[in-house]
Design goal:
The protein has 384 residues and is an alpha/beta fold. Helices cover 47% and strands 15% of the residues. Strands 1, 4, 5, 6, 7, 8, 9 and 10 form an eight-stranded mixed sheet that branches. It has a two-stranded antiparallel sheet with strand order 2-3. It has a two-stranded antiparallel ribbon with strand order 11-12. The two termini are 48 Å apart.
Length: 384
């Protein structure tokens, strides 16, 4: 979806002194950082992307021209970042309803976050929208164009932050499941962390998952507790398998476990949950979620992330740890007079038993004393 009337302004005119290298052109996953930032906005449906250049503009501008972005030259860049803000906003046309402002050294903001802010602007037109993660405000703000005059006339301290503090009555905090709105790279150590996060950006953290569940999709408390319990079991199984020599991605499995029922209550909720997670930018997680209701077992009976989630989900009724026989006994009691449904139940039960047997062949019979994030949620119990 294209967001007409919204412009993105990327600030890339500074010296990069603390980094010791020019940050916009650092390599991030085979492309310059500035290209990653531009791509974030384009993927979010923002077609009017402008970059403010200053220091090293002669080597930056050829890259920007290849990206097809509009370039704004700030010759006063030595006087600080606010001069780049001023250079950009004074040229905004009357048709621009609002604009994002994002420094180039904050390159991991999710396209989903940009889309979500733009969608919220429709309900908050004329306001300043600031993304918020776990109680902390981050970047990029989305600023209604009616504040351009305030920005141009500002003579106080703290640049843009100072302007925004004066507009608190017109500022709306938007909760987003995106920890990287708070992460910028100033020093070499930050760039090392940036590269690590880039490689894992398609796997949401536990905190990001919980914001998605509670603040964005507002799932019920029971579904939330169910998902946490499933995550606890899946995490424990993963730990045991990895101790036995398997190489499973624990963070991936936890994310899939927490988000597997995000669309609970909707028709075909496994597919709909996967669609939501894929749209969030996490295709690997979505792929695992798709099979948490029904799974096609490998003929080689290998155990991967999907199998771990499938079994963990079948070991939980509501938010309680149960045996497989108890869980499927409940299903039989509810649907015993429906032959088509009974066949599905039987297949699911056989698949769960097969996965259980494969895991136990690797690690031995294991009691599950369920743990989630260090908090004990249930007592010791065997799988069947």
């Amino acid at each position: 979806m294209e967001h007409v009337g919204i412009t993105a302004i990327i600030l890339a005119a500074g010296y990069s002194e603390r980094m010791g290298r020019f940050k916009p052109l650092l390599d991030l996953g085979g492309r310059p950082v500035i290209a990653r930032v531009v791509d974030t906005f384009v993927r979010a449906g923002i077609r009017d992307v402008r970059v403010v250049a200053g220091y090293n503009k002669d080597i930056l501008m050829p890259v920007l021209h290849k990206l097809g972005t509009r370039v704004i030259v700030n010759d006063n860049y030595a006087d600080g970042m606010f001069t780049s803000v001023l250079a950009a906003v004074k040229g905004l046309e009357s048709g621009v309803k609002a604009f994002f402002l994002l420094p180039a050294d904050i390159p991991l903001v999710r396209p989903w976050t940009i889309r979500y802010l733009a969608e919220n602007f429709v309900r908050n037109e004329g306001k300043i929208l600031v993304p918020c993660f776990m109680g902390q405000h981050g970047h990029p703000p989305l600023i209604a164009s009616r504040f351009i005059e305030n920005i141009m006339n500002y003579r106080g301290e703290d640049g843009l932050s100072g302007v925004l503090k004066q507009q608190e009555a017109d500022t709306v905090s938007i909760r987003v499941p995106d920890r990287n709105i708070l992460f910028d790279m100033d020093e070499p150590g930050d760039f090392t962390e940036l590269q690590r996060r880039w490689k894992r950006c398609s796997i949401p953290s536990v905190d990001e998952c919980e914001v998605l569940l509670k603040d964005i999709y507002r799932i019920s408390e029971l579904v939330l507790e169910h998902s946490k319990t499933v995550a606890g079991i899946a995490g424990r199984i993963t730990d045991e398998l990895n101790r036995a020599g398997t190489d499973l991605d624990r963070a991936l499995i936890l994310a899939a476990s927490l988000l597997h029922d995000i669309a609970k209550g909707k028709p075909g909720h496994a597919g709909e949950s996967a669609r939501i997670v894929r749209d969030f930018g996490c295709p690997e997680v979505a792929h695992i979620i798709e099979s948490h209701t029904d799974i096609v077992l490998s003929p080689y009976k290998t155990i991967g992330a999907a199998e771990v989630l499938y079994l963990a989900d079948k070991l939980v009724s509501d938010d309680k740890l149960v045996t497989l026989s108890e869980r499927f006994g409940e299903s039989v009691a509810r649907h015993g007079n429906k032959p088509g449904t009974m066949r599905k139940i039987e297949t699911r039960y056989k698949n769960a038993l097969t996965i259980k047997d494969c895991i136990e062949a690797r690690i031995g019979t294991m009691p599950l004393d369920l743990q989630y994030d260090g908090n004990k949620l249930a007592g010791t119990q065997r799988w069947v």
